[in-house]
Amino acid sequence: PEIHGAMVHGAPPAPRSVASPMRSRPPSGGVKQGAAAAPPPFSPLHDLIFPLCLILGSPSFCLVTGWLTQQQSPTLSTLVGTLAADPLGFGGQVLAATLPTVEAAAILFGFLGLALLLYTIPGETKYGPISEKGWKPAYVDNAMAHCLLFPLFFILGSKELSGKHGLYHLSVLYDHFGPIIGLLNYGGLAFCFFLYAKGLGYLKPLGIGISGPDCGSSGRGFIFDYYWGTELYPRLAGVDVKRFVNCRFSMTFWMLAGISFSAASYSQHGVLDPGIVLCALSQFLYLVKFFYWEIGYMRSIDIIIDRAGFYETWGCLVWVPTIYTLHTRTMVNLPSGLSWPSATAIFVVGTAAVYFNFQADIQRQRFRETSGKELVWGKKPIAIEAEYSVINATTGKTEKHTSLLLASGWWGVARHAQYLFELTAAWSWGILAGVHTHGILPLFYPTFLTILLIHRAIRDEEKCQAKYGAAFTKYKQMVPYNILPGIFQ
Q: Cα separation of 89 and 83, whole Å?
């Protein structure tokens, strides 16, 4: 399948859309990508009501969690109790706690500035898959330099390491979290409108044109276009918007959040909480793995199908920093209550899952880079050659291409085995927050991710079935299980 195993980002699962090829496949062979196949008919539920609910509800939910984790007891009972005690004033409390500040703006300005600087580091040029309209995106592979230098600069700039020459305390991301999320929320909504206008060509008079052939309206109205996006690969001043927002901002924020929240916890309580320290460490290792394999992510469904709209871009600007850090954030004011032995046992399980997730990613990547010549688990890999067609963006002619589907190693165990490891890691992070002290709130992220990854796996199956046809049917016969061997087909 086209999903390569990287962490999936974004807001809650997308509805069916014209950008996701959920149409009947031909009797055999592959489907012509970019051919004039009729899109699904307009659905008020999927194309209007569902996107509108997410556009209105998700930003509010993020602000509420930003307020909740600033409370001394960040639990659902605190949320319910506050709502019951002052239902009319609750909204005011949330808005006050997440009101953007000058300090928050300065933090984000510095964060984005450093990310842009590191974005210019030279590296080998690598390519993503050819799009439905024949576009082949190019990327400079410098993710590991970014991954190593950004945390280093963050720590070097702190008062804890540089003393009076430091610019901030390591706890800075927690200390200003509410205003940061508020600013990201409002700024993210505005930025998505900017991208909407850019993809429709409305900004050409300002010298801001579209970035490639995969753009335009879905024909389903403003709400859906704003939600789904109008460009597949938008670029601004040479910067790939998806890569910068999805990877260099959201994943980096998540990585630094663990450091910052752990520092905030130690500052408050004077001791290291095993839950938050090991949770942050496990996530840090996961994200190092992510950046090592960033080019693989740029070939995943997040990039090659999902356009840069509210679902994708706002999701990475706001949903990821808010929800993917929720379980860690709850432990700052209220420690996990776990002992070092119990926390270490959970950490070992989660970190092992991260390692196996990495192994699955690398198996697929090396298999593709060597055209199937790389040994998998010490043996010659089993592969299926699948043919598909694309339309050449220059000539307009249909061209035949082939792709290899790996059916060995972890990819012979399940078609999305990497998701099993990803979910195991996510649940370990939620449990490290201490369910006995925090209730079920820290389990929101792993629950959300479970729903999201199952949904993504199904979408990927539909895409590959449409693209590869009979070859993918054969692949499913060879590897019958989707995520969980023996259970989920």
A: 8
Question: Rounded to an integer, what distance in angstroms lies between the CA atom of residue 94 and that of residue 68?
Answer: 8
**Can you name the residues that pair with 231 across neighbouring β-strands?**
215
First to last CA, the chain: 14
Please give the full DSSP string across 177-206, using - where no structure is assigned.
HHHHHHHHHHHHHHHHHHHHHHHTTTTGGG
Q: Which of 125, 139, 460, 138 is nearest to 305 (CA)?
A: 460
Pairing, β 32-33 against β 383-391 = parallel
Strands (E), 269-382: none
Do residues 398 and 477 lie in contact, with contact meaning Cβ atoms separated by under 8 Å?
no
> Can you give the residue ranges of every domain in the chain?
32-478
CB atoms within 10 A of CB 245: 26
Backbone angles phi, psi at 356, to 5 degrees: -70, -35
**442, 327 contact by CB (below 8 A):** yes
Question: Is residue 381 within 8 Å of 367, Cβ to Cβ?
Answer: yes
Q: Which of 212, 180, 144 is nearest to 69 (CA)?
A: 180
d(CA 167, CA 157): 6
| DSSP conformational letter for 319 | I
> Which tokens is 414 given?
């399940």
Distance CA 423, CA 397 (A): 42
Per-residue pLDDT of the chain (489 residues; tens, 9 = 90+): 333 333 444 555 444 333 332 222 222 333 344 444 556 788 899 999 999 999 999 999 999 999 999 999 999 999 999 999 999 999 999 999 999 999 999 999 999 999 999 999 999 999 998 888 888 999 999 999 999 999 999 999 999 999 999 999 999 999 999 999 999 999 999 999 999 999 999 999 999 999 989 999 999 999 999 999 999 999 999 999 999 999 999 999 999 999 999 999 999 999 999 999 999 999 999 999 999 999 989 988 889 888 999 999 999 999 999 999 999 999 999 999 999 999 999 999 999 999 999 999 888 888 888 888 888 998 899 888 888 877 776 777 787 888 888 889 999 999 999 999 999 999 999 999 999 999 999 999 999 999 999 998 998 898 888 888 888 999 899 999 999 888 866
Tell which residue, 427, 414, 437, 328, has the closest CA to residue 364. 414
Going by C-alpha positions, the residue among 299, 304, 473, 461 that lies closest to residue 386 is 473
CA gap 385, 273 in Å, rounded: 51
Task: Give the gyration radius of the chain's Cα atoms.
Answer: 23
Are the CB atoms for 330 and 264 separated by under 8 Å? no
